[in-house]
Design a protein that fits this description.
Layout: E1 3-10, H1 16-29, E2 35-43, E3 46-50, E4 56-60, E5 65-66, E6 77-80, H2 91-99, H3 108-114, H4 117-124, E7 130-132, E8 135-138, H5 143-152, E9 157-161, E10 171-173, H6 179-187, E11 193-197, E12 201-211, E13 214-217, E14 221-225, H7 232-236, E15 241-244, H8 251-267, E16 274-281, E17 287-293, H9 303-310, H10 315-325
Parallel strand pairs: 1-2, 1-6, 7-17
Antiparallel strand pairs: 2-3, 3-4, 4-5, 8-11, 9-10, 9-11, 12-13, 12-14, 12-16, 14-15, 16-17
Helix pairs in contact: 2-3
Protein name: D-alanine--D-alanine ligase
Pfam families: Dala_Dala_lig_C (PF07478), Dala_Dala_lig_N (PF01820)
Function: Cell wall formation.
Protein backbone atom coordinates (compact mmCIF):
# COMPACT_ATOMS: atom_id res chain seq x y z
CA UNK A 1 0.00 0.00 0.00
CA UNK A 2 1.36 3.41 -0.95
CA UNK A 3 2.36 5.75 1.86
CA UNK A 4 0.79 9.18 2.10
CA UNK A 5 3.29 12.05 2.09
CA UNK A 6 2.52 15.69 2.80
CA UNK A 7 4.69 17.95 0.65
CA UNK A 8 5.00 21.04 2.83
CA UNK A 9 5.80 24.34 1.12
CA UNK A 10 5.18 28.11 1.28
CA UNK A 11 6.31 29.90 4.40
CA UNK A 12 6.33 33.23 6.18
CA UNK A 13 9.28 34.93 4.44
CA UNK A 14 10.39 36.20 1.04
CA UNK A 15 11.75 32.72 0.34
CA UNK A 16 8.20 31.39 -0.07
CA UNK A 17 8.33 31.94 -3.83
CA UNK A 18 11.46 29.74 -4.05
CA UNK A 19 9.85 27.13 -1.80
CA UNK A 20 6.84 26.86 -4.11
CA UNK A 21 9.13 26.38 -7.12
CA UNK A 22 11.05 23.68 -5.25
CA UNK A 23 7.80 21.91 -4.32
CA UNK A 24 6.70 21.85 -7.97
CA UNK A 25 9.93 20.06 -8.92
CA UNK A 26 9.69 17.58 -6.04
CA UNK A 27 6.08 16.85 -6.96
CA UNK A 28 7.07 16.17 -10.57
CA UNK A 29 10.04 13.92 -9.76
CA UNK A 30 8.85 11.93 -6.76
CA UNK A 31 8.07 8.22 -7.22
CA UNK A 32 4.27 8.16 -7.48
CA UNK A 33 4.36 4.38 -7.66
CA UNK A 34 5.49 4.39 -4.01
CA UNK A 35 3.83 7.48 -2.57
CA UNK A 36 0.61 9.49 -2.70
CA UNK A 37 1.60 13.17 -2.54
CA UNK A 38 -0.48 15.97 -1.06
CA UNK A 39 0.78 19.54 -1.40
CA UNK A 40 0.27 21.50 1.82
CA UNK A 41 0.69 25.27 1.64
CA UNK A 42 1.65 27.02 4.88
CA UNK A 43 1.01 30.75 5.14
CA UNK A 44 0.53 32.91 8.22
CA UNK A 45 -2.85 31.94 9.63
CA UNK A 46 -3.70 29.77 6.63
CA UNK A 47 -2.57 26.14 6.26
CA UNK A 48 -4.31 24.25 3.48
CA UNK A 49 -4.14 21.33 1.05
CA UNK A 50 -4.06 22.42 -2.59
CA UNK A 51 -5.39 19.75 -4.93
CA UNK A 52 -4.78 19.38 -8.66
CA UNK A 53 -7.79 21.52 -9.49
CA UNK A 54 -6.63 24.41 -7.28
CA UNK A 55 -9.21 23.66 -4.57
CA UNK A 56 -8.24 24.61 -1.01
CA UNK A 57 -8.94 22.37 2.00
CA UNK A 58 -7.94 23.50 5.52
CA UNK A 59 -5.46 21.52 7.59
CA UNK A 60 -6.65 20.31 11.00
CA UNK A 61 -3.74 21.38 13.22
CA UNK A 62 -4.70 18.91 15.96
CA UNK A 63 -3.21 16.07 13.91
CA UNK A 64 -2.14 17.70 10.62
CA UNK A 65 -4.94 15.95 8.75
CA UNK A 66 -7.08 17.10 5.84
CA UNK A 67 -10.63 16.20 4.86
CA UNK A 68 -11.23 16.83 1.16
CA UNK A 69 -14.79 15.92 0.22
CA UNK A 70 -15.45 14.81 3.79
CA UNK A 71 -12.85 12.01 3.75
CA UNK A 72 -10.24 12.36 6.50
CA UNK A 73 -6.65 11.81 5.38
CA UNK A 74 -3.70 11.47 7.74
CA UNK A 75 -0.06 11.26 6.68
CA UNK A 76 2.74 8.75 7.12
CA UNK A 77 5.40 11.44 6.85
CA UNK A 78 6.34 14.95 5.78
CA UNK A 79 8.54 15.98 2.87
CA UNK A 80 9.62 19.41 4.09
CA UNK A 81 10.59 21.80 1.29
CA UNK A 82 9.66 25.02 3.11
CA UNK A 83 12.63 27.41 2.99
CA UNK A 84 12.98 29.99 5.76
CA UNK A 85 10.47 30.24 8.61
CA UNK A 86 8.74 28.11 9.86
CA UNK A 87 10.14 25.17 7.85
CA UNK A 88 13.86 25.77 8.24
CA UNK A 89 14.13 27.38 11.68
CA UNK A 90 12.82 24.51 13.82
CA UNK A 91 9.29 25.75 14.45
CA UNK A 92 7.63 23.28 12.09
CA UNK A 93 9.89 20.45 13.24
CA UNK A 94 8.88 21.07 16.85
CA UNK A 95 5.20 20.93 15.90
CA UNK A 96 5.65 17.65 14.00
CA UNK A 97 7.60 16.21 16.93
CA UNK A 98 4.72 17.04 19.28
CA UNK A 99 2.11 15.28 17.12
CA UNK A 100 4.40 12.35 16.26
CA UNK A 101 4.90 12.84 12.51
CA UNK A 102 8.30 12.00 10.95
CA UNK A 103 9.83 14.46 8.48
CA UNK A 104 12.70 14.57 5.99
CA UNK A 105 14.73 17.42 7.48
CA UNK A 106 16.78 18.22 10.61
CA UNK A 107 15.20 18.13 14.06
CA UNK A 108 13.99 21.23 15.87
CA UNK A 109 17.21 21.95 17.76
CA UNK A 110 19.54 21.55 14.79
CA UNK A 111 17.19 23.55 12.56
CA UNK A 112 16.96 26.47 14.97
CA UNK A 113 20.72 26.56 15.60
CA UNK A 114 21.77 26.30 11.95
CA UNK A 115 19.29 29.00 10.95
CA UNK A 116 21.41 31.32 13.11
CA UNK A 117 24.68 31.87 11.24
CA UNK A 118 26.52 33.19 14.29
CA UNK A 119 25.58 30.27 16.55
CA UNK A 120 26.45 27.76 13.83
CA UNK A 121 29.94 29.23 13.45
CA UNK A 122 30.44 29.01 17.22
CA UNK A 123 29.73 25.26 17.13
CA UNK A 124 31.77 24.24 14.08
CA UNK A 125 34.75 26.60 14.47
CA UNK A 126 37.02 23.94 16.01
CA UNK A 127 36.61 21.31 13.27
CA UNK A 128 40.03 20.42 11.82
CA UNK A 129 40.82 22.13 8.49
CA UNK A 130 37.74 24.36 8.71
CA UNK A 131 38.13 28.12 9.17
CA UNK A 132 35.63 30.87 9.97
CA UNK A 133 36.01 34.53 9.07
CA UNK A 134 36.30 37.04 11.90
CA UNK A 135 32.83 38.42 12.61
CA UNK A 136 30.51 40.33 14.93
CA UNK A 137 27.00 39.23 15.82
CA UNK A 138 24.77 42.24 16.51
CA UNK A 139 21.46 42.19 18.34
CA UNK A 140 20.48 45.86 18.00
CA UNK A 141 20.88 48.52 15.34
CA UNK A 142 22.57 51.18 17.46
CA UNK A 143 25.24 53.78 16.80
CA UNK A 144 27.54 52.04 19.28
CA UNK A 145 27.25 48.76 17.35
CA UNK A 146 27.94 50.60 14.11
CA UNK A 147 31.12 51.96 15.69
CA UNK A 148 32.08 48.49 16.92
CA UNK A 149 31.95 47.21 13.36
CA UNK A 150 34.18 50.06 12.17
CA UNK A 151 36.64 49.66 15.05
CA UNK A 152 36.89 45.86 15.30
CA UNK A 153 36.65 44.54 11.73
CA UNK A 154 38.79 45.04 8.66
CA UNK A 155 37.16 46.26 5.45
CA UNK A 156 35.70 44.95 3.24
CA UNK A 157 33.04 42.83 4.93
CA UNK A 158 29.65 41.25 4.39
CA UNK A 159 26.61 42.39 6.37
CA UNK A 160 23.76 39.88 6.43
CA UNK A 161 20.63 38.98 8.39
CA UNK A 162 21.73 36.33 10.87
CA UNK A 163 18.78 34.03 10.24
CA UNK A 164 17.89 34.95 6.67
CA UNK A 165 18.23 32.97 3.47
CA UNK A 166 18.57 33.44 -0.28
CA UNK A 167 20.94 36.36 0.45
CA UNK A 168 17.97 38.67 1.08
CA UNK A 169 19.10 41.80 2.94
CA UNK A 170 22.79 41.09 2.37
CA UNK A 171 25.41 43.73 1.42
CA UNK A 172 29.11 43.90 0.69
CA UNK A 173 30.62 46.92 2.44
CA UNK A 174 33.79 48.53 1.12
CA UNK A 175 33.88 51.86 2.99
CA UNK A 176 32.99 53.09 6.47
CA UNK A 177 30.36 55.37 4.96
CA UNK A 178 28.41 52.31 3.71
CA UNK A 179 28.21 50.56 7.09
CA UNK A 180 25.03 52.13 8.48
CA UNK A 181 23.04 51.68 5.26
CA UNK A 182 24.04 48.00 5.14
CA UNK A 183 23.07 47.50 8.79
CA UNK A 184 19.71 49.19 8.21
CA UNK A 185 19.06 46.89 5.25
CA UNK A 186 19.95 43.74 7.20
CA UNK A 187 18.04 44.74 10.35
CA UNK A 188 14.96 45.33 8.18
CA UNK A 189 14.99 41.56 7.56
CA UNK A 190 16.02 40.22 10.98
CA UNK A 191 16.48 41.13 14.65
CA UNK A 192 20.06 39.84 14.54
CA UNK A 193 22.77 40.74 12.04
CA UNK A 194 26.12 39.11 11.29
CA UNK A 195 29.03 41.17 9.98
CA UNK A 196 31.91 39.10 8.58
CA UNK A 197 35.28 40.08 7.24
CA UNK A 198 35.68 39.37 3.54
CA UNK A 199 37.53 36.22 2.50
CA UNK A 200 39.17 36.38 -0.91
CA UNK A 201 38.53 33.00 -2.47
CA UNK A 202 36.57 30.82 -4.85
CA UNK A 203 33.03 30.01 -3.71
CA UNK A 204 31.62 26.48 -3.59
CA UNK A 205 28.52 24.71 -2.33
CA UNK A 206 28.40 21.05 -1.38
CA UNK A 207 25.45 18.81 -0.55
CA UNK A 208 25.39 15.89 1.84
CA UNK A 209 22.77 13.51 3.18
CA UNK A 210 22.58 10.39 5.32
CA UNK A 211 21.36 6.92 4.35
CA UNK A 212 21.56 3.97 6.76
CA UNK A 213 23.90 5.82 9.11
CA UNK A 214 26.40 6.76 6.39
CA UNK A 215 26.92 10.33 5.20
CA UNK A 216 27.04 10.72 1.42
CA UNK A 217 28.98 13.81 0.36
CA UNK A 218 28.04 14.93 -3.14
CA UNK A 219 30.40 16.62 -5.63
CA UNK A 220 30.78 20.33 -4.87
CA UNK A 221 29.49 23.03 -7.21
CA UNK A 222 31.73 26.01 -7.97
CA UNK A 223 29.90 29.34 -8.05
CA UNK A 224 31.25 31.85 -10.57
CA UNK A 225 29.10 34.97 -10.43
CA UNK A 226 29.24 37.97 -12.72
CA UNK A 227 28.18 39.98 -9.68
CA UNK A 228 30.38 40.81 -6.70
CA UNK A 229 28.81 38.11 -4.58
CA UNK A 230 26.21 35.35 -4.80
CA UNK A 231 23.15 37.48 -3.98
CA UNK A 232 19.43 36.83 -4.60
CA UNK A 233 19.65 37.93 -8.24
CA UNK A 234 22.71 35.78 -8.86
CA UNK A 235 21.03 32.76 -7.30
CA UNK A 236 17.73 32.92 -9.15
CA UNK A 237 18.32 34.83 -12.41
CA UNK A 238 19.42 32.76 -15.39
CA UNK A 239 22.76 33.75 -16.90
CA UNK A 240 24.03 35.83 -13.97
CA UNK A 241 25.98 32.97 -12.43
CA UNK A 242 27.95 30.06 -13.84
CA UNK A 243 27.63 26.89 -11.76
CA UNK A 244 30.27 24.24 -12.41
CA UNK A 245 29.55 20.72 -11.11
CA UNK A 246 31.87 19.12 -10.10
CA UNK A 247 33.73 22.27 -9.12
CA UNK A 248 37.33 22.81 -10.14
CA UNK A 249 39.35 21.46 -7.23
CA UNK A 250 42.47 19.33 -6.96
CA UNK A 251 42.20 15.75 -5.69
CA UNK A 252 43.70 16.90 -2.40
CA UNK A 253 41.13 19.70 -2.06
CA UNK A 254 38.26 17.34 -2.91
CA UNK A 255 39.38 14.86 -0.25
CA UNK A 256 39.87 17.59 2.36
CA UNK A 257 36.50 19.23 1.68
CA UNK A 258 34.71 15.86 1.77
CA UNK A 259 36.18 15.07 5.19
CA UNK A 260 35.26 18.52 6.55
CA UNK A 261 31.72 18.39 5.13
CA UNK A 262 31.04 15.04 6.78
CA UNK A 263 32.33 16.36 10.12
CA UNK A 264 30.06 19.41 9.86
CA UNK A 265 27.03 17.22 9.09
CA UNK A 266 27.69 14.95 12.07
CA UNK A 267 28.68 17.67 14.56
CA UNK A 268 25.46 19.59 13.85
CA UNK A 269 23.44 16.34 14.02
CA UNK A 270 21.93 16.97 10.59
CA UNK A 271 19.26 14.82 8.96
CA UNK A 272 18.08 14.64 5.38
CA UNK A 273 19.81 16.64 2.66
CA UNK A 274 21.74 19.77 3.64
CA UNK A 275 24.08 22.08 1.72
CA UNK A 276 27.22 23.75 3.01
CA UNK A 277 28.59 26.87 1.34
CA UNK A 278 32.31 27.59 1.66
CA UNK A 279 35.27 29.46 0.18
CA UNK A 280 38.64 28.08 -0.84
CA UNK A 281 40.91 30.99 0.00
CA UNK A 282 43.15 32.25 -2.77
CA UNK A 283 46.84 31.49 -2.21
CA UNK A 284 46.33 29.18 0.82
CA UNK A 285 43.40 27.00 -0.36
CA UNK A 286 42.09 27.02 3.23
CA UNK A 287 38.41 26.09 3.64
CA UNK A 288 36.32 28.96 5.06
CA UNK A 289 32.80 28.15 6.21
CA UNK A 290 30.03 30.46 4.94
CA UNK A 291 26.78 28.84 6.06
CA UNK A 292 24.70 25.69 6.02
CA UNK A 293 21.23 25.29 4.51
CA UNK A 294 19.08 22.57 6.06
CA UNK A 295 16.27 22.90 3.50
CA UNK A 296 18.24 23.49 0.29
CA UNK A 297 16.43 24.43 -2.90
CA UNK A 298 15.11 21.70 -5.17
CA UNK A 299 14.34 23.66 -8.32
CA UNK A 300 15.21 22.17 -11.73
CA UNK A 301 18.61 23.86 -11.71
CA UNK A 302 19.28 23.78 -7.96
CA UNK A 303 22.76 22.89 -6.79
CA UNK A 304 21.65 19.71 -5.01
CA UNK A 305 19.92 18.43 -8.16
CA UNK A 306 23.07 19.09 -10.21
CA UNK A 307 25.22 17.29 -7.66
CA UNK A 308 22.94 14.24 -7.48
CA UNK A 309 23.02 13.87 -11.26
CA UNK A 310 26.82 14.21 -11.19
CA UNK A 311 27.11 10.91 -9.28
CA UNK A 312 24.86 9.16 -11.80
CA UNK A 313 21.79 9.09 -9.59
CA UNK A 314 18.36 10.27 -10.66
CA UNK A 315 16.60 12.94 -8.63
CA UNK A 316 13.74 10.49 -8.10
CA UNK A 317 16.12 7.94 -6.54
CA UNK A 318 17.53 10.66 -4.32
CA UNK A 319 14.06 11.69 -3.12
CA UNK A 320 13.18 8.07 -2.37
CA UNK A 321 16.31 7.68 -0.23
CA UNK A 322 15.50 10.89 1.67
CA UNK A 323 11.89 9.83 2.28
CA UNK A 324 12.68 6.28 3.37
CA UNK A 325 15.36 7.50 5.79
CA UNK A 326 12.84 9.38 7.95
CA UNK A 327 11.23 6.10 9.11
CA UNK A 328 14.54 4.50 10.20
Amino acid sequence: MKKKIALVTGGFTGEAVVSLKSAAVVEKNIDLGRYDIYKIIIEKGNWYYLDGEANHYPVDLNDFSISPNGEKITFDGIFNILHGSPGEDGKLAGYFDMIGLPYTTCDAITSSITMNKGYTKAIIHDIDDLNVAKSLQLFKNTSSNTQRVIDELQLPYFVKPNSGGSSIGMSKVKTKEEVQEALDKAFAEDTQVLVEEFVSGREFSIGMYMVDGEVTVLPATEIVSSKEFFDFEAKYTAGVTEEITPGRMTEEEVARVKKVAEKVYLKLNCKGAVRMDYFLEHETSKIFFIEINTVPGQTETSLISQQVRAIGKSVQEFYTEIIEEMWK
